Amino acid sequence: MDLDTDTGTLPDYRLYGSPDSANLVVRMVLESEGIPYREERVDRAAGGLDAPAFRRLNPQGLLPVLVEERHGTALFETGAILLHLAERCHGARFGEPAGRGRLLAWLFFLSNTVHAELRLCFYTPRYAPRAGDAQRLREALRPRMVAHLMQLESLCEHGRGPWLLEDGPSVLDPYLACLVRWMQLYPVDDPCRALPWERLPKLVGLLEALAERPGIRRAANAEGIVGRLFIAPDYPALDLRGVTG
Predict the structure, then answer these.
(1) Three-state DSSP class for residue 75
(2) Which residues form a coiled coil (predicted)?
(3) pLDDT digits (tens, 9 = 90+) for 204-233
(4) Which of 87, 148, 210, 232 has its CB surrounded by the most CB atoms within 10 Å?
(5) How far is Cα 235 from Cα 212, in angstroms, rounded to an integer?
């Protein structure tokens, strides 16, 4: 979303990303909340993550990066960006101690536990380079992924709608949805497609409800994802070289 060409006003943010990487979560929040931003596509296959200009924004050379246009501040780490956007969009709700506490606890769980372990599946040879070790590590991680989803299924049992928090929709929902999406798609040569949906009816309801939201669809379409989003998802119709969550 590049706004506003008519008035010449700068968008609020600049989002750096590549198709179906962690920037997808951030884009879903921006689109859902109607926050003006412009996209900066990073060519991962051509070494864009190691370009000096990008490394100045995020020294780790990872996506996503969200730059505040007004101050030029570069935000990185998915969880930190989502917390920033949550406080901007829903400051009153998340400023309340109990609501903020729940958001922080589960946001850190998604970021530090689920996403971190999923990255081990994506980049297993970095951590287990010896022959056979990578597959054993993935096999050890996958039951943990299912256990994490079962824990999140229990969180949805508050009976106040399909969202993770009983207060209503939050940045947690698209984050979880994208993590579940990537579990089933990446790494391309060994994805985890067999999730026990019959044991996750609340999460199925959340994922189905989220996929119907216009802002979520706009974000997906912008990254070439035009089919199924979260349950038995489709790959984006764009260059997949080097893509992971």
Answers:
(1) strand
(2) none
(3) 999 999 999 999 999 999 999 999 999 999
(4) 210
(5) 18
- Residue 69, SS3? coil
Express each pLDDT in 52-102 by its tens digit.
Answer: 999 999 999 999 999 999 888 999 999 999 999 998 876 545 555 567 889
Q: Contact 179/245 with Cβ under 8 angstroms? A: yes
